Amino acid sequence: MRLLFPTQPLPIPATDAAAHATSTPWPVWAGSVASPVRFAPLAKKAAVRLWHRARDFDRGTHQPGHHGGAVGPTALQVLHALIFDFLNHRTGRLDPSYAAIARKAGVCVRTVATALARLRELGILNWVRRCAESWRDGRFVLEQETNAYAVLPEGQWRGYRPPAEPPAPAPGTCG
Known about the structure:
alpha+beta
């Protein structure tokens, strides 16, 4: 009986050995999904309010002698770029690449990765890794796509306390 798949890996030509040393059959991140992502619309006023709440959260958690608060200045820059440069308020679509975020925020790509991780840790942002399925030369291929991001409401942020309601005016001051 003949096996469809060889039990031993096929030999790699010497010229291509370096190129194939780290390649995998499907070079996508673990946990990537191929199914379509549904984006939730976010009105511009609501997005602006979330940005101001995140900035207030950072200011409210500032420690003397430290640079920034819980969120941090670079994470705020990245969040600003996501909300004001990439978010489609009508459809909710938010899926820029790390390089595009870095260009708009004025930081390097590695800083974007660190800032996004910080925003996810605080519950301000969440994302889904995506990949695309296709057939190329008769072979099934998975390709990595950009992440699909979502800005979460402030009720889900870790460590955030909403601002106190202002006191009501004294009865004799109105009108």
